[in-house]
Predict the 3D structure of the following.
Amino acid sequence: MTPSSGNVFADLGLPDAEELLAKADLVHVIQQLVCAKKLSRRAAAAVLDVAQPDLSKLFRGRLEGFSIERLVRMLNAFDQDVRVVVRPKAASASRRTPEKPQTTRISAMPVDPRRSRCGAEAKPAPHLDDVRRC
């Protein structure tokens, strides 16, 4: 058994794994918001200014065609504040090799932090190293 790196996309050897994980994080929050607002996919697509079939693909994990900027605009359409934080990793920052870039963490929080996916208790939106499926 191989331990996970915390990024399933990196574990699978996919290029741009950090970007894919950031997108998955943002999509997760969008899904939580759609559910919390009890919107149909058609109504959510109208609010998010995206075609309903494209929204369905996005919710099924098809991230291609959706930039981080576009996903942030979707969260903004739900009156969400999205923060981008750049900082060295904790303990490993001093061991970083010069050619490795710092990672960027992107997170968003649902409108009502007490409630998330259809009445379940909400947890803070996951960071790049801690993505959960809704």
User: Anything to note?
Assistant: The longest helix spans residues 17-36. Confidence is low (pLDDT under 50) at residues 119-134. The chain has one domain: 14-118. Residues 14-118 form a domain with the 434 Repressor (Amino-terminal Domain) fold (CATH 1.10.260.40).
